[in-house]
Amino acid sequence: MIESDDFVKSLEDIGFDFFTGVPDSNLGGIIATLMERRLYTPAVREDEAVAMAAGAYMAGKTPVVLMQNSGLGTCLNTLLSLNLIYQQPCLLIVSWRGFQGKDAPEHLIMGQTMTQLLDAVRIPHRTLSEQTAGDDLKWTAETFMKQRIPLALLLKKGVVRGIQP
After folding, report:
1. Tens of pLDDT along 3-44?
2. What element of type H or E holds 110?
3. Mean pLDDT value across the chain
């Protein structure tokens, strides 16, 4: 398991300096670390967080948006009509709820279809794992400015330490 502190430091080391999003229990450790470091600006909805990230990018920041995968549905129009069209990149750190059919019923359909949805809207994505974290973060850094569009780093439960032990 990757420690939340180490994960946040790795993101900062590759240049990310604006963090926003909507809380999710799987992202709790990351958000707690960001809050301790006074780096996190909470959002009410995922589409608001994506818009805040676009504004931060225009102000010279390198933004990250944290959300659970159900939030992709909430922010899809913003990602397509703002970020993709106008080349406003942001890193989406997406908690993969409903992975392999294991979660509450409301997460199952998005869990099954998330990667196909990202493919359909042409958002590059990669699934973070402890074994490939170095390569995953290298891919993130290289892809972020090269393509100048949103990209997603998908997090399954238990890859990055949460708040609960």
Report:
1. 988 999 999 999 999 999 998 888 999 999 999 999 999 999
2. helix 108-120
3. 89
Is the backbone of residue 34 left (phi > 0), alpha (psi -120 to 50) or beta?
alpha
Count the neighbouring beta carbons within 10 Å of the beta carbon of residue 147: 14
- Tell whether the model's pLDDT for residue 138 goes beyond 60: yes
Dig out the tokens for 140 from the structure: 């993130």
Quote the tokens at residue 86.
């106008």
What residue spans define the domains of the chain? 4-155
Here the tokens at position 99 are 């992975």
In the chain, the amino acid numbered 2 is I
Query: Count of CB atoms within 10 A of residue 122's CB?
Result: 11
Q: What is the DSSP letter of 160?
A: B
> How far are the Cα atoms of 26, 40, 47, 93, 100 from residue 30, in angstroms, in the given order?
9, 10, 20, 10, 23
* Number of neighbouring beta carbons within 10 Å of residue 49: 28
From the candidate CATH numbers 3.40.50.970, 3.90.940.20, 3.50.40.10, 1.10.287.3510, the one assigned to the domain spanning 4-155: 3.40.50.970
User: CA 88, CA 100: separation in Å to the nearest integer?
Assistant: 32
Residue type, 21: G
